[in-house]
Design a protein that fits this description.
- The complex is a heterodimer.
- Chain A is α+β, with helices and mostly antiparallel strands.
- In chain A, 44% of the residues lie in helices and 14% in strands.
- Chain A folds into three domains: 88 residues, Acyl-CoA dehydrogenase/oxidase, N-terminal domain (Butyryl-Coa Dehydrogenase, subunit A, domain 1); 110 residues, Butyryl-CoA Dehydrogenase, subunit A, domain 2 (Beta Barrel); 131 residues, Butyryl-CoA Dehydrogenase, subunit A, domain 3, CATH 1.20.140.
- Chain A is built from eleven helices and eight strands.
- In chain A, helix 9 runs antiparallel to helix 10.
- The longest helix of chain A has 25 residues.
- Chain B is an alpha+beta fold.
- Chain B has eleven helices and ten strands.
- In chain B, the strands form three sheets. Chain B has a four-stranded mixed β-sheet.
- In chain B, helix 9 runs antiparallel to helix 11.
- Chain B is globular, with a radius of gyration of 21 Å.
- The chains are: A alpha+beta, B alpha+beta.
- Chains A and B meet through helix 7, helix 8, helix 9 and helix 11 of A and helix 7, strand 10, helix 8, helix 9 and helix 11 of B.
- Bound molecules: flavin-adenine dinucleotide.
């Protein structure tokens, strides 16, 4: 059992840190620590420019094969990159869906044409993607998707009709991957297709949804015979579910340590305030700060185990608890921040509703336990997959 | 970076689990608890002769195995999983305590005794609510040194051949001694406890004459805090075993039991509880192995005392909570049979309760940690 990285990996760490240090300056100084969940609406143009800067340094898509402009970075190197990126205050990545979801999906399931068309602009930080899974009637129950796709033989195009919802950053993106039903008579996870769809076209309407923070990061996206080409279906018709689920397998947890670095920054800030305003003398607050510290370390060593992999390459038990763990931890941290601040937590300093960081943290962490599979769904998955307990019954409650 | 077992470590885990599945069955544990001795001597002999677990922490230069802490906690985790009722914990605790003492004839003789299968117990303090409360005193009069006072919760102390005892010097510093239970003025009584799988004793000393050779450490203040931390980490291993077994036997039970024409394992309230239990035990396990790696790094000077203590506070708080949560939830998942003497979940529940306050409550661990985080200079 070892908790340290190799000398070669440490050199790589230095290279990353140096580059970030040199580049997060000048025009990019202001994007440091900006963006990311709860702050996505800030500095969008600047953060897109930052993606192109990253690309010049070969720091986008580092896990991709070299053939497609990546570095074929090892798991360890990817972890290090994320850690150093967070440490340097690198802004929330506008390109992360393309880098970590679209790209790996195409690399695994895409045709050569699809790879050649879509990978380079992602790699170069020029094209931004969003994820179109959820629908009004298909949230936790994703297989209830009703959006439809039909191949128009005359036009030689796919036509997509339906509604997606909660589509993060669609209003700032160029493309969306859409899960839609090809076979009209199919149900559940059969008969679906995974489509690559341009957002800037007459058949697509995007309406931002205002969140409890007063800002808008996600959207309703309406498709009214929106088109995509014959080559824009990934996998065979009917393989949509397999492709969509394949995405989950790409999450090897490389970003977890970087995420924890951001969490540490938040906890440090809360500790700093507690020392200044005297909350650090409150016995209950002391217990909770200690608990938060323990939780953060727990996540770190859970991740380390997860990253060290299972013997047979299957999803490890640590990987299965990760989402449930961090989302619950982060939500509690938001509440801890409010309790440390006390009455001051209520005060809006700027503008009509310009929340400060901890207020956004508090409100937006309520989303952490919902998106990407709610806590209840995570518990179902853990019970069923890790503990072999029976699957949830379906159908109308009697 | 490979935060995973090596092949040898995996083998050790497998053989430990297999050995204990065989020798520490529910029936064997219950018989050991009911016996006068409080544990099965024949099994202890097998642990020493066949498995040599008493030698894991004993340095190689003392003819021990000199293995690392990961190995030690692997075995103790398996022991907790099977409710092993044995002097193993006491001996591991004493070996850990001795490895930090300077090389003396007394220390080397004690290592020899441990390897031979003797029971060496550790009497740290006389805790009521605070485990730092050392009640034993050193008095020197007319050139003769005496130990007087008490110590509580001495694991397996009543069966020990030797007892290590911490005592207050006249100047309020601590020192560490080795005494023999047959020495005049020593009385060690078995303590009746709610959990019977980890037998305890209380030590009374009334002007016990000790020689200089019996002094293991003249200034034991740092030793005391380190030994508390090390002992906590050993306990955490037991707790991770308790938490895992509580989850496993409870889930197995819910898959067999049917109500409303379904197995109760199919009810979401049960599934979600089980998922939370798994989250708890996996988290405690991560901190356990982190703590074990920290001890190994600490013993070669790679990290300082602060890091050692921190690792122990964190692992202990987390594993105490996990063991109690899992055993308590386990009883609920069992329904009425969880309240019977017959089912094992109650044994885990009691052992979880006992280990939870042993060497400090989770709230004490968090407070100590808070003190590290909040009371120092601003970061
Ligand atoms: C900030 C944010 C960003 C998002 N971004 C995207 C995105 O970019 N693309 C995208 O496709 N989607 C996105 N989502 C959608 C997200 O994946 C869904 O919100 C989520 O899957 C839950 O679906 P729902 O909102 O319909 O809730 P529902 O499924 O209606 O759930 C409501 C409640 O019922 C519970 N529940 C549902 N089913 C069960 C069950 N079987 N057992 C127990 N409890 C159950 C849930 O846990 C929850 O508490 C985003 C969501 C948020 C909040």
């Amino acid at each position: 059992m070892k908790l340290t990285f190799s000398a070669a990996d440490e050199l790589f760490r230095e290279e990353v840190a140096d580059w970030l240090n040199d580049n997060l300056t000048g025009e990019f100084a202001e994007v440091r620590y900006r963006g990311g969940p709860g702050d996505e609406h800030h500095f969008v143009t600047e953060r897109k420019a930052w993606e192109r800067r990253l690309a010049v340094g070969r720091w986008t898509c580092i896990g991709w094969p070299e053939q497609w402009g990546g570095r074929a970075a090892s798991i360890e190197q990817q972890v290090i990159f994320h850690e150093e990126y967070a440490r340097a205050g690198g802004p929330g990545r506008m390109g992360h869906i393309g880098d970590t979801l679209t790209g790996p999906t195409l690399l695994a399931f895409g045709s050569e044409t699809q790879k050649a068309t879509y990978l380079p602009p992602i790699r170069n930080g020029e094209v931004f993607w969003s994820q179109g899974y959820s629908e009004p009637g298909a949230g936790s129950d994703l297989a209830a998707i009703r959006s439809r796709a039909e191949f128009d033989e005359d036009a030689g195009q796919w036509k997509i009709t339906g509604q997606k919802v909660w589509t993060s950053l669609a209003h700032e993106s160029d493309y969306v991957f859409v899960l839609a039903r090809i076979d009209r008579d199919s149900t559940r996870h059969h008969g679906l297709g995974f489509f690559l769809v341009a957002l800037n076209q007459p058949g697509v309407t995007i309406r931002p949804i205002t969140q409890l923070t007063g800002t808008a990061e996600f959207n309703e996206v309406y498709f009214d015979e929106a088109v995509c080409g014959p080559d824009d279906l990934v996998g065979a018709p009917g393989d949509g579910w397999k492709v969509a689920m394949g995405l989950l397998g790409f999450e090897r947890g490389v970003s977890t340590l970087g995420q924890q670095m951001l969490f540490q920054t938040e906890l440090d800030e809360i500790i700093r305030i507690a020392k200044v305003n005297g909350a650090s003398r409150d016995p209950d607050i002391r217990q909770r700060i200690a608990e938060a510290h323990i939780g953060l370390k727990t996540m770190r060593y859970n991740s380390m185990r997860m990253l060290s992999g299972t013997e047979d390459g299957s999803l490890s038990r640590e990987a299965m608890i990760y989402k449930l763990y961090w989302s619950s931890w982060h939500r509690n941290l938001g509440k801890l921040a409010m309790d440390v601040l006390g009455p001051d937590a209520e005060l809006i300093e700027n503008g009509p509703y310009d929340l400060n960081r901890l207020q956004s943290l508090f409100l937006f962490t309520r989303a952490d336990t919902i998106y990407g599979g709610t806590n209840q769904i995570q518990r179902n998955l853990i019970a069923e997959r890790a503990l072999g307990m029976p699957k949830e019954p379906r159908g109308p409650a009697k | 970076m490979k935060f995973a077992f090596t092949d040898e470590q995996r083998m050790l885990r497998d053989t430990s689990q297999a050995f204990l599945a065989d020798t520490s069955s529910s029936r064997a544990v219950r018989m050991a608890c009911a016996s006068d001795r409080g544990f099965d001597d024949a099994l202890w002999r097998r642990v020493c002769d066949d498995m040599y677990w008493q030698g894991i922490l004993v340095p190689e230069e003392n003819d021990g195995l000199g293995l690392g802490w990961v190995e030690m906690v692997i075995v103790l985790e398996a022991a907790g999983e099977r409710l092993l009722t044995s002097p193993l914990f006491a001996v591991a605790q004493s070996a850990a305590a001795l490895t930090q003492c300077p090389k003396t004839a007394c220390r080397d003789a004690l290592f020899g005794s441990i390897l031979a299968g003797d029971i060496v117990a550790l009497a740290l303090s006389n805790p009521s609510s605070d485990w730092h409360c050392v009640d034993a005193r050193v008095d020197t009069s007319e050139g003769v040194t005496h130990l007087s006072g008490e110590a509580g919760f001495v694991s397996c102390g009543y069966a020990a051949e030797h007892v290590l005892v911490a005592a207050q010097n006249a100047d309020d510093t601590l020192s560490l001694w080795c005494i023999n239970p047959s020495q005049e003025g020593v009385r060690i009584e078995r303590t009746p406890t709610m959990d019977q799988t980890r037998p305890m004793a209380h030590l009374y000393m009334d002007a016990v004459t000790v020689s200089n050779e019996q002094c293991l450490l003249a200034d034991a203040n740092e030793w005391f805090n380190r030994t508390l931390a090390l002992s906590r980490i050993l306990t955490v291993a037991d707790q991770v075993g308790i938490a895992q077994a509580s989850l496993d036997i409870s889930v197995a039970y819910t898959k067999e039991r049917s109500q409303f024409d379904r197995t109760i394992a199919s009810f979401q309230a049960i599934k979600h509880k089980a998922a939370d239990m798994m989250l708890k035990v996996e988290s405690a396990r991560s901190l356990l192995y982190y703590a074990a790696c920290t001890v190994d790094a600490w013993s070669v000077g790679q990290v300082n005392d602060e890091a050692l203590l921190e690792a122990a506070y964190m692992a202990s708080a987390c594993a105490s909570d996990a063991a109690f949560f899992n055993a308590g939830s386990g009883i609920q998942m069992h329904g009425g049979v969880g309240i019977t003497e017959e089912y094992d979940i109650q044994l885990y529940f009691k052992r979880a309760r006992a280990t939870e306050s042993f060497l400090g409550r989770p709230s004490d661990m968090r407070e100590s940690l808070a003190s590290q985080l909040l009371d120092g200079a601003a970061p």
